[in-house]
């Protein structure tokens, strides 16, 4: 089947973004059709012509937006800014949605009572290097955003450790000294005896509808996008 004429929309298949999306679409009367079962990952939207919907992970949506294989995707600011180099030139934010709100932050152990700011952290990095002959470790899933933020704050004597699981447990398990992580309420950080530095906010993120600037667009695609955005407004 040739899908060139359809507006290709990617929506989250699971997680907190899917939960927020389901609630929004229920309120707005957005109904999916042509879904064979709950496990089907492709469909369309009633009352909006020439639309093809894919259900993907938020991370894959970000990748597809960058390469232009989808026209529109629902994902978070955090993934877009972490995964897409020069993202402003490759995608545009069409609509900010009122869910999926979270913050990417720098968190340190509660026992570090004298470390309150990023300037304090830089001093600790230097002490750590001199004492242990190695750089302070920062566990994170957001290496690029972390490096950009630390550089802006003048913190250089550290190294990032890529996290593939529960980032907030890394200091307790001895895998890192501190972390940067995404948090909505801060409860998980507190449960792991971590706290956010006073000036440790890296990014405020929320769910958004993004438009790929690298996809092939024509008048019918733009018209379908307009109808979709009107439906969920």
UniProtKB/TrEMBL annotation:
GO terms for cellular component: cytoplasm. One of its GO terms (molecular function) is ATP phosphoribosyltransferase activity. This is ATP phosphoribosyltransferase. PROSITE patterns: ATP_P_PHORIBOSYLTR. It catalyses: 1-(5-phospho-beta-D-ribosyl)-ATP + diphosphate = 5-phospho-alpha-D-ribose 1-diphosphate + ATP. Signal peptide: none annotated. Gene3D superfamilies: Periplasmic binding protein-like II (3.40.190.10). Pathway: Amino-acid biosynthesis; L-histidine biosynthesis; L-histidine from 5-phospho-alpha-D-ribose 1-diphosphate: step 1/9. Keywords: Amino-acid biosynthesis, Glycosyltransferase, Histidine biosynthesis, Transferase. GO terms for biological process: L-histidine biosynthetic process. Residues 58-231 form the ATP phosphoribosyltransferase catalytic domain. Its EC number is 2.4.2.17.
């Amino acid at each position: 089947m040739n899908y060139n004429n359809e507006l290709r929309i990617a929506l989250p298949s699971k997680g907190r973004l899917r939960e927020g999306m389901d609630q929004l679409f229920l309120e707005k009367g957005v109904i999916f059709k042509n879904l064979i079962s709950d496990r089907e990952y492709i469909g369309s939207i009633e009352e909006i012509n020439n639309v093809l919907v894919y259900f993907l992970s938020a991370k894959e949506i970000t990748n597809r937006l960058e390469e232009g294989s989808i026209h529109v995707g629902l994902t978070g600011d955090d993934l877009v800014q972490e995964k897409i180099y020069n993202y402003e030139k490759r995608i545009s934010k069409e609509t900010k949605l009122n869910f999926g709100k979270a913050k990417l932050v720098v968190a340190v152990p509660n026992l570090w009572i004298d470390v309150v700011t990023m300037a304090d952290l830089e001093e600790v990095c230097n002490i750590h290097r001199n004492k242990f002959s190695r750089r302070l470790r920062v566990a994170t899933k957001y290496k690029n955003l972390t490096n950009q933020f630390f550089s802006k704050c003048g913190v250089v004597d550290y190294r990032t450790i890529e996290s593939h699981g529960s980032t907030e447990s890394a200091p307790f398990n001895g895998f890192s000294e501190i972390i940067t992580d995404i948090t909505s309420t801060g409860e998980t950080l507190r449960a792991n005896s971590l706290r956010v530095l006073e000036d440790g906010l890296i990014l405020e993120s929320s769910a958004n509808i993004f438009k790929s600037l690298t996809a092939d667009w024509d008048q019918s695609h733009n018209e379908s996008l307009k109808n979709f955005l009107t439906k969920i407004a």
